[in-house]
Design goal:
Elements: H1 2-6, H2 9-14, H3 25-34, H4 44-56, E1 65-70, H5 73-83, E2 92-96, H6 101-109, E3 116-121, H7 128-143, E4 153-158, H8 162-169, E5 174-178, H9 191-199, H10 204-217, H11 228-241, E6 246-250, H12 256-270, E7 278-281, H13 288-291, E8 295-302, H14 305-319, E9 324-329, H15 335-353, H16 364-380, E10 390-392, E11 395-399, H17 402-406, H18 412-420, E12 428-433, H19 439-456, E13 460-462, H20 473-478, E14 483-490, H21 505-522, E15 527-532, H22 536-549
Parallel strand pairs: 1-2, 1-3, 3-4, 4-5, 6-7, 6-8, 8-9, 12-13, 12-14, 14-15
Antiparallel strand pairs: 10-11, 11-15
Helix pairs in contact: 4-9, 5-9, 5-12, 10-15, 11-15, 12-15, 16-21, 19-22
Length: 559
């Protein structure tokens, strides 16, 4: 904290002093627009009034269902809002945050499209996955005889964006435009989260009051000793310097999406140049021995009885020498203000660490490889066929980079054993399924995660693709080189064409997975891909059995 105070970092942040972070000249020129999120608290009154008016019109308009079509930070915001215990939505709501053709068809089968409102949220709308979903549902409306999206689509985007322009061209019922340059992970106070709050009938007056109160508490006039943003930023930076580079969230189920939003902010901002803070979720079940190996803990809880039980666990960890920060919310209206505090704190922590929080330098290789694969589909009509390393029970194992050379190909069990032996005692495992991770599948992946944590002695994350490409990809590619990465792909039961595109939804999903798989391998990250040749329904059952029976059960992480 002394360093941040000595550098006058907080006052410089509010003055939008871009010299707080390292940047090339061209990057420095865009940093001021990256910092426009600091101005949002002063603009909230008019913003909240407008989004509340639009949300109030949903029910009178006769909509039975609301579908939020969004990936990245907006999908995290939607998930967080929809899971809050006091959200009173009054109608069926769905979150579409993937491009799995099976999942899209399953969703469409339970919707009455003529009475469905689609909410598209994307910073630009240019990302190929988000754009493809937009094209698909625009075409579905056309097939139903609706010549425009006038009465069914709402867009949330940035000013002068592609999505904003499309909303005008296709006559969306409304569009909400945010200032350009705001990065997704610093977007807690843009239109979309407040629309979600209005749809959930949260108290707008309380929400606004909390944000303004937090703005004052974290402002440049608040002294360092009592300023919550400086305290949190200093805590994060100091823990990382001292080797605690995995941020483990303890939270109740209803607040897990909010924890994901905070973790994404911290992880993607700090993880550059093979250092930074990796977010990990579901930590309440982790043994003390695991947490002592380079972890810091964030205890996110609601006030009340449930919160007190969680507080006891976190207090015990603090007494055991684990760095712990506690976040207590009095109600769901506190969440936006708390996220705003974390944004300020993270920007300050990055200044102390000497990294630029607004850049994603390590994800460009994955994006470039994806573009090359789409060109190949356009030229040849199909994706390349990589070499299978091991095949068993309709599951194919692929490896990339150094892992290819170190992997046993005797059989599936030996291949997995040799892969898991690459783990570090202070590392983590990321399970990355490129599919619709519906509740049933999430249950399977969580069981796998629990089994692997017990067996490997390291935290295990489950983050679905392609959503993680918009959130945690910078963490996996640019953060500490301590992770193992296990991608899971599957053949769709029935693919879906994308109107006007030369690729299908299934090809899109697989191409994004292949590109990130290759990029992780070429960056020296231990990575394998398990492909479920007969589809996800049958394949996940087989995969769970294979992982459960693989050798090395209950082995501690190598030291």
């Amino acid at each position: 904290m002394e360093s941040l105070i000595k550098q006058n970092a907080l006052a410089r942040l509010w003055a939008k002093d871009t010299s707080l972070w390292p940047a090339e000249q061209q990057e420095a020129e865009t940093l001021k627009s990256n910092l426009s999120w600091l101005d949002l608290p002063e603009q909230l009154g008019a913003l909240v009034t407008r989004v509340a008016a639009r949300a109030a019109e949903i029910e009178p308009a006769g909509f039975e269902d609301v579908v939020f079509v969004t990936l990245g930070s907006s999908s995290l915001a939607a998930e967080a809002a929809l899971r809050l215990p006091s959200a009173r939505l009054g109608k069926r709501t769905f979150l579409l945050d993937h491009v799995d053709p099976d999942g899209v068809q399953s969703l469409e089968a339970i919707l009455n499209l003529e009475k469905t409102l689609f909410i598209f949220a994307s910073k630009t709308g240019k990302d190929i996955d988000a754009h493809s979903l937009l094209l698909y549902f625009l075409d579905r409306m056309r097939v139903l005889g609706m010549s425009s999206a006038l009465s069914h689509f709402v867009a949330f985007a940035q000013e002068n964006s592609y999505l904003g322009q499309l909303a005008v061209e296709y006559q969306f019922i409304d569009r909400f435009l945010d200032p350009p340059g705001i990065h997704g992970r610093y977007s807690s106070l843009i239109h979309f989260p407040f629309f979600l709050a209005a749809v959930g009938h949260l108290d707008a007056g309380h929400l606004l009051a909390r944000v303004r109160s937090m703005r004052e508490a974290c402002g440049s006039k608040a002294s360092g000793e009592v300023n919550p943003a400086i305290s949190l930023g200093a805590f994060l930076a100091a823990a990382e310097v001292e080797g605690s580079d995995r941020l483990v969230f303890f939270s109740p189920n209803t607040l897990q999406p909010a924890a994901h939003r905070m973790g994404y902010l911290v992880g993607a901002s700090t993880c550059k140049g093979s250092r930074g803070i990796v977010p990990v979720f579901g930590g309440a079940s982790y043994p003390l021995e695991m947490l002592r190996r380079g972890c810091l803990v964030a205890c996110l809880r609601m006030s009340g009885e449930e919160g007190r039980e969680l507080e006891k666990k976190c207090n015990a960890l603090q007494e055991a020498g684990i760095p712990v920060v506690t976040i207590e919310l009095n109600g769901p209206e506190d969440l936006s203000a708390e996220l705003f505090k974390w944004e300020i704190a993270t920007a300050l922590a990055c200044s102390s660490m000497g990294v630029n929080p607004f850049l994603d330098p390590d994800t460009q290789d994955s994006r470039g490889r994806a573009a090359n694969l789409f060109e190949e589909i356009s030229d040849k009509g199909q994706l390349p066929s990589p070499t299978v390393r091991v095949r068993e029970a309709d599951i194919e194992l692929y490896a990339e980079g150094e892992t290819r050379r170190e992997l046993s190909t005797l059989n599936m069990s030996e291949a997995l054993r040799s892969f898991f032996e690459l783990r570090r005692p202070d590392g983590y495992l990321a399970l990355l399924p490129f599919m619709d991770v519906n509740p049933a599948r999430l249950g399977i992946f969580r069981r796998m995660s629990d089994q692997l944590e017990m067996r490997l002695g390291i935290p295990t994350l489950v983050t679905g693709g392609p959503r993680y490409l918009h959130t945690l990809a910078q963490v996996y590619h640019g953060g500490p080189a301590k992770g193992l990465f296990l991608l899971v792909t599957a053949n769709p039961t029935r693919d879906l064409a994308i109107p006007g595109a030369k690729y299908s939804l299934g090809q899109l999903q697989l191409a994004l997975a292949l590109a990130d798989f290759e990029a992780l391998g070429r960056q020296g990250r231990p990575v394998i891909r398990l492909h479920l040749a007969r589809g996800a329904e049958q394949g996940l059952v087989q995969l769970e059995t294979i992982l459960k029976n693989a050798p090395g059960n209950r082995q501690p992480a190598p030291s």
